[in-house]
Every structure is written in C-alpha cells, then in structure tokens.
Design a protein that fits this description.
The chain is an alpha/beta fold and 394 residues long. The chain is 27% helix and 28% strand. It has 10 helices and 20 strands. The strands form 5 sheets. A 7-stranded mixed β-sheet has the order 5-4-3-6-7-9-8, sandwiched between helices.
Length: 394
Amino acid sequence: MNRFTTSWGAFDLSRFPEDPRDTLRAWDAADAYLLQHLAEVEAETGTGAAAGTEPGTGTGATVVLGDRWGALATALAARRPVQITDSYLTQRATAANLRRSGVDPEAVGLHSVLDTPPERIDLLLVRVPKSLALLEDQLRRLAPAVHAGTRVVGAGMVTEIHTSTLKLFEQIIGPTRTSLAVKKARLIFCTPDPGLPRVPSSWPRSYPLPADVGVVSGRTVTNHAGIFCADRLDIGTRFLLAHLPAGRGAGRVVDLGCGNGVVGTAMALADPGAEVTFIDESFSAVASARATFAANAPATAKAEFVVGDALSQVPAGSVDLVLNNPPFHSHRATSDATARSMFGGARAALRPGGELWVIGNRHLGYHVRLRRLFGNCEVVASDPKFVILRAVKR
C-alpha cells in the first residue's frame, strides 16, 4: 500500500488483490501528472469542475477511462465520476480504495467497457491503454457524448504514447497535442470537433481458425477490442490446442484466463459431456468467449461464464481440469503475482486427482513453483519457445 498525495487529499491505495509481496504501486507518474494538471486548470479558471465551465453549470458526466487501480476515481470521487474499465480487478481495487479512504463507494459509477456510456460528458480523462484497438473502440463509443465544451485529457508514460495513439484522438475526437514529459509521463490535450463524423466502433470482430488446430479447425472465433491477438490465433494457444487433454471425459473443466474462449470451446467439442467454465478478469474476454462458444458448441453443451478474480468464485474441490496460460505482465511491469494467484486457486479448486495444465514461455520457470505447490510437475510438450506443464493434485 502506498500513499498518493493530490490536491484533493492523500489516499492510501493498493492494487487488488492485495499481496504483501507485491511491491508495485497502485498509481504512477501519469496519474499524478494528470491530477496536477486538473488542479492547475481549476485554480486558473476559478471553477470547481475543471471542465471549462462555470461552477454548477456543467450538466454532463466526468468520465475516467482506463483507470488502472482506481487512483484517479478515488482522488476525484467528490465529482461523482463514472469509471470505465475492462478490468474486474480494477473495479474491485477502486471500491476497496474508496472504502479505505472513507469515501462512499457509490460515489463512483463502476462501468465496464461494454456498458452503455453516459449521454453527455463534460470531462473525459483517458489513461492510455496498451491496446490500440481498445482505445479506438472506446473513443468511438464515447465520441457521441463529447461536445464542443468537453475537456479531454489523456495521460500515459512516454513509452505508452505513440504517433498512432495521437492519430486516434485526432481522427475520432479532434485536434490533438501533447505536453512536455514530466517524470517520464506525458499528457494528451484534445479539443473536440463536433463536425467530425461519428463512426461506430467496428468491434467485436470474427475470424476463421486455421485448418491445423484440431477439433476447432476452421471454426469462427469472436473477439472484442483489447483481446490478445484479436485478429489471429496466437502461437502459444495454437501449441496448446495441439496437445489438449481431450477425449477422456474431462468432467468439469475451467478455461482460466479464457481470452476469446477458443481453448474451452475446443474442450467442449472434444468432450461433449464436459462442463466448461470460462473465467477471465476482462469483461471483453468473457463476452468474446461467450460469443465463440455460442457460435461453435452444440446446443446441449454446458458452459458457465465468469468475470472474476481467478478461481475465487469456484467452490473448493469441484473441478477436474484447469487449463491456464497465465499473463506475466501487469500493465508495463513484469510480475508473477497473477500466475501465483492462478496456480494457488487452481490447487484449491481441483478435486483429488484433478489436473492443472499450464502453457507458458520456457524462460518463466513455472515448473519450479508448480512442484513447490503441488509436489509434482511434468512436461507434456515443449518447443523452443513454449512448454506445457501438468501438475496433479494428490
């Protein structure tokens, strides 16, 4: 936990789930720079909205898009902002940080990127996401609510803001410029142009799978914006599909960190009696998995779709097989915190004799942690880049 000092107060903030071993902060220099800019604008204009309007005359919403762990929404809670995120963990972190700061969690509207946005926006704050597709999708969804008086400010670390980023703001919202860099962070200033055409988002999109990926060959996959490898099958998933533990009556299967759901859908097709649960912390991922499953699985197939924190919502000892490709980045930072949580949750959720199958880059060394946690681990398959590991709950 770290204290974040702003013009609106000092706040003790933490990521979610809280992990005493995790040294990463719940805010960064881009968050601080953005809030400092808003405070300076407010002082210069003598307004309380920091949105270019006289106090009390603003009728639109304050929207915080892409808030990482709720730092911006917590600091600006008095404005009753709407936070829009694709992350379930961000929503949980925001609610926890608000409570920790003595703020009513109802002060912030927690919306997913798939929810209907506000009809009118007076202040739009954008933490630039890693995915350019997600940024385009969200700017197009929000553009109809932006008007000539809307103040639009983006923020990110220098390494996150590219020419392509600025072009999206320019094409969708209006003329765009950037600030000087401060502590390796930069701001984006965008002036809304009501004359720009409001082109609807082109997401979600679908594509056919190649002909050499087993039971799902030639099937159609659906992806919402921001999903990893949204326009093609990534090589890690392709490798896993070639070595699935299928055809053995798998029982209850969890596709953990399901992405577009192609792995869980493949299990449902290979083992028609399997009950597959698709879990991801991304709202867009679970929506993608639902669409992929619906387009390919028979009507009698059983599936559940969960937006959540790994396996925290799955009863202990209830699962026969967990399939997992854990992420090893938390925004810009490399971290094994998510993998640790997923592996521990899998062991708790599995029945005795149940199996966890993990695919990952060879250099990540997941076998060491799995042997420590399960007491066993074997290599199912490997190539120069990836390894598939199997651990059994004894």
